[in-house]
Amino acid sequence: MRLGVLLSATFLVLAIPATTTAGTFPDSHDQVPAGWTGAVFRLSQQFPATDPSRATPPPTYPWQQIDFHTKPAEYIKAVFDYVQEGNREVDWAVQNNAVRPWYHAPWMHSGEKGREFVRGLTRERFTPAPRPGETGELGPQQTACAQNWAVGFLNAPGGYVLGQVWANPDAPDPLKALFPEGTVAAKLLFTAASLDQVPYLNGTLEWDANIDTLPAGDTRCTNSSGRSIQKVRLLQMDLAIRDKRADDTTGWVFATYSYDGSRGGAGWWERMVPVGVMWGNDPNLNLAAFNAGTRVTQSWINPDLRTPQHLGYLGRLNGPVDNPKSSCLSCHMTAEVPARTNILPPNPTPAEPDRPMPWFRNMPAGNSLDQRSIGTDYNLQISNGIQNFQLWKQAKDGFVAPPPRPPAGPGPLAMPAPGAAVPAADDGQVLMIDGERVYRVER
Predict the structure, then answer these.
(1) Beta-strand (E) ranges in 244-338?
(2) What is the mean pLDDT of residues 308-329?
(3) For helices 380-397 and 156-165, what crossing angle results, to 10°?
(4) Per-residue CA distances from 317 to 311, 320, 335, 398 (Å)
(5) Cα–Cα dist 38/103, whole Å
(6) What confidence score (pLDDT) does residue 122 get?
(7) DSSP H stretches of helix in 145-278
(8) Cβ pair 385, 152 in contact under 8 A
(9) Would you say 315 and 328 are in contact if contact means Cβ atoms under 8 Å apart?
(10) Cα(396)–Cα(400) distance, integer angstroms
(11) Per-residue pLDDT at 397 exceeds 60
């Protein structure tokens, strides 16, 4: 739960500290080598000092005139175009966007999955090699494991919140993670899979990136011998929009695009195809309901998908890089400090077919799945960054000052506590921070 939902909007505006100054946070995990002449990632961290959503007159956005319930494809195309505008022209150096600036979350540089120096990509879930007799998640030609890397960024309303969370670089405050209407988060996801493994990526956006060097035959992409410059290809693009019209479910609209090289269009962006849009987790869609013929009603899945897609649990929305056990909203619903909830739900069993269902609630924006933690409003980069900071501080000083504790008892928007997280079949990594067992936050 969080204290922030109990406070008035006026108080939040009056209580904000000064904005974080540029250059406070490192750009990348690895150093730029001497003689490197290629692109170099720079963290966009000149966060807005005031909340753009409170401007007079208030800002308007093109998707606000479109109902995502009835016209989801039109709605998300308006958001997609908004994200593209000005960013393609600067090759996604989003701080240089002449139309509108975008911002990166701090402290994603830390750890073995941290931001590489060329494009600021962080390592995502790998796509495992298919087992004998199975088809790969990326398609029938996939035979090897594929590592995947991504870079995310937020528009000005979201950047304002990043600045408030990290206003004191030595004491990030998760209570400030409450995003205003109009916030947009976007993420570009790239795969290191070759074109012979994923031929439908022909013609997509390609970047050089400093990513893990893996031996042939590594079926789970875990045996890195260090990083080296390699080619990565855009496979997926994720979008998240804070939209009050979704307040009766989660307060957020999530969407995923995937690349399809067989489509027409002069540029790669014209061959990005929406996989779907979701605004709720369909909490009543359990295994029994699915087997009886019920399908998602709080998502739209594109009926004209021509590339391999595995979707999420029981047909909920997920992208081709994502874990099929979860969904877009379910995954991000675990964003909290400390991370007491595993990002993945447990597998159902014959005796307990509803074991995964606590991960598919409709949790209101700004809350936490585990009521002992502070939610970061569906933003895993904030919870991940704070955890990275805490791990660094613990290794450096031997302790971490604990984050502010929410008051006892549920707040007015609080969800029922799910209880102890049940370990999943491929359970998340467990860490100890200040003597407490928490899960590694994954993106």
Answers:
(1) 252-259, 272-278, 299-301, 336-337
(2) 97
(3) 20
(4) 5, 10, 18, 41
(5) 22
(6) 98
(7) 156-165
(8) no
(9) no
(10) 10
(11) yes
User: Can you read off the two tokens belonging to residue 414?
Assistant: 């609080």
Mean of pLDDT values over 117-136: 96
Give the residue from 50, 30, 51 showing the smallest Cα distance to 40.
30
3-state secondary structure 98-111: CCCCCECCCCCCCC
Q: Report the alpha-carbon distance of residue 237 to residue 277 in Å, rounded.
A: 12
Pair of tokens at residue 360: 């598919």
- CA–CA separation, 339 and 86 (whole Å): 35
For residues 440 and 339, is the Cβ–Cβ distance under 8 A? yes
First to last CA, the chain: 21
Quick one: pLDDT at residue 398? Answer: 62
Distance of alpha carbon 73 from alpha carbon 302, whole angstroms: 8
Do 344 and 356 contact (CB within 8 A), yes or no?
no
Close Cβ partners of 18 (under 8 Å, ≥ 6 residues apart): 49, 167
What is the residue type of 235? L
User: What pLDDT score does 442 carry?
Assistant: 75
Per-residue pLDDT band for 404 (boundaries 50, 70, 90) equals very low
- DSSP category for residue 361: -
**Per the omega criterion (within 30 degrees of 0), is the bond before 404 cis?**
no
Q: Which amino acid is at 405?
A: R
**371 within 8 A of 417, measured Cβ to Cβ:** yes
What is the per-residue pLDDT for 435? Answer: 72
Residue with tokens 């209407």: 181
3-state secondary structure of 32: coil
* Element containing residue 329 per DSSP (H, E): helix 328-333
Q: Which residue type does 374 have?
A: I
Q: Which residue has the tokens 């890195």?
A: 224
Tokens 């049940």 locate to 422
Going by their DSSP bridges, the two strands 299-301 and 336-337 should be labelled as: unpaired
Look at residue 365 and give its three-state secondary structure. coil
Neighbour count for residue 140 (Cβ, 10 Å): 10
Among residues 154, 187, 217, the alpha carbon closest in space to that of 443 is found at 187
Separation CA 213–CA 235 (nearest Å) = 20
Cα–Cα distance measured from residue 376 to residue 36, given in angstroms and rounded to the nearest whole number: 37
